[in-house]
Amino acid sequence: MKSYVYRIRFIVSVIAVTVLPIIVTGVVLLKAAEQALLQEKEKKLLAITEQLDFALSQDFENVLREEGLQNASREQQIAALNRKLEQLTDQIATAHPGIGVGYYARRLDAIITYGPSREMGQHVGMPIAPDHPGRQVMSRRSADVVVGPQVRGEIMNAMYPIERNGEVIGYAWANELMQSIDIQLAGMRQGIYSIVGIGCVIAAVASGLMIHRGEIILQEIKEGLRRLSLDLSFRMKPAKGEPGEIFEAINKMAGDLQASRSHTETIIHSMESGVIALDHRGRVTAWNEAATRITGVSLEQAMGRDYEDVFRGEEEILKALSDALGEGKTTRDAEWSPRGAGRARLFVKIGTFIWKSPMEQVLGAIIVMDDRTEWKRMESSLAQAKRLAVIGELAASIAHEVRNPLTSIKAFAQIIEEELPAGHDSREYTGIIVDEVERLNRFADELLLFSRPDEEHHVPARVGEVLDQTLLLIERSAASQGVVLHKVYRDSPASVLASPELLKQVFLNILINALQALQDGGQLLIETEAVDGQVFIHITNEGPPIAEEHLLTVFEPFFTTKKSGTGLGLAISQRIVQAYGGHISARNVDMGVQFTVVLPAKKEEA
Predict the structure, then answer these.
(1) CA-to-CA distance for 603 and 533, rounded, in angstroms?
(2) What's 107's DSSP letter?
(3) Quick check: 342 and 331 in contact, CB under 8 A?
């Protein structure tokens, strides 16, 4: 009896020590294997959907355009797409027996091909249900695998959104009947049961337990690293023993990476220079706010896209990046002007650099952009001022040399005219000589004014009053041309130190040019404002724009696009304003052309 009890105890102990752990281990392994098989099926089906997306070299609309059916009926378009894509889906379905593949067109709301066509062709043209998971895949723009009843029956269905030109046009799918998967699972279960039955030794049980434990730890590490790749704020749960030390090290590494990334991103987005980073394939991985301001392309529009698509048509940048990524050649101080429609012309200095890891592995390229537009304009203005000064000195010499002979010519012509009897034919010619001498004298006066505008007396002058006096001179001409004058004096009491008469000439020159640009009528806007110790006078007309290359040249002496005129009007105006410490600029605006006179405001005496 006692022996029997001992045997029962022994059997129970053996069962407890061997059979039960083996059974438990077998169940765990079976579940893991089933899950692994299902995951493998999901990966395979997703890989097939990506293959379908890659094999579709163009979007559905291009196919219809090639067939000339972009305006055809829905049924005709579905039939045309099915003819074009049926062979492709049949080939892929043949390469993967038991797998159903196809495409769905979002605009047509129809299945346009379903392979193998001999079995599934009847489903072509059918829409999907309103709650079909494919609609969620298209709206989220992310692939998904769903198990359940669908068009083909109870299936495992992998769906992949098809994006072209930033728009989801449909999705591709690959599915397999759950019946086929269940058969494979049944075969796998039988094999596992056999292995579990054979492995009835304590060493196998111990090994199985260790492996099972190791798998759990590795799975947690794998899942933790996967979560960290998506979200650096994720932290793994604390654990005991060596796994706990590993989890702690991973958490510390994630914290360091998060701090480093936040610090780097803050620095990059705070920079005045545009910074763009590309990976080794040429896709955008970083894009700061300054790059958006310079290029006109937002972060959302650029991230993840190939640089050739982002900078299409911009040859300077494309060549610089191609040299950096393809040949490892960097670019320094290259100039580029963005060609964005409707944007003011910019002058940008670009430089490219090779992006390397600490192990000298090439990770991609970095391009740095500096907006040099204002610097370029200042450089041009300075060069123009120097040229004007040199020309002014020359003009003064010419004017002085010309005026004396002109005085003698005029005097002798008048003497000759007085000696001739009344009605003599030659008196007409002497009158012409005198008139022409007077015209040359006026031209010499203009040259002298151009060369020495600062010799005039400087007195406090109210800008609004000078403008009103000047506008009286052109009101009649403006009315006869159908030009409407608008005045907006935001700071009418503003005063400057200048000669009112010379200021009147500056404004008159600009206003006359504006009237000449408004031959068919329009609006002429005169505005004043005082900002930060400076007075701004804006004169804007609705005339045609000035060519970009002429916006600075219009202030050069003797430059004119008119058939008549000396080309000195705006040059003299610029010289007068510069003599008072200001400047004149011209730019094209939405309304037309705007000339801006900037003068230092008069400082109030204590």
Answers:
(1) 8
(2) T
(3) no
